Amino acid sequence: MEGGGRDRSADRRGQRGTADLYQTVIRAYVVPHIGERPLQELAPAHLTALCGQLMREGGRGGRPLAPKTVRNVHTTLHRALGDALKWGSVMRNAA
Question: pLDDT grade, residue 14 (50/70/90)?
Fold first, then answer.
């Protein structure tokens, strides 16, 4: 690239990939387990139970889910609930 400018297309692809990961995590792991619970009622115990269940039987065919995937679920929830806290949708971040 001329002028030493930085190629930002890689940054945009990375952001899109992150958004896709978050959507997949929410759709595949969060909604089926705690998706019907109102955000205001979500407590740390619910998330601990979710992560435990995913570690025991959250994968295909009831197999354990990989620890990295469980971390991705927790990180996604932590960030989403942090945003909800910032926007006033919840009183605390349960993650």
Answer: low
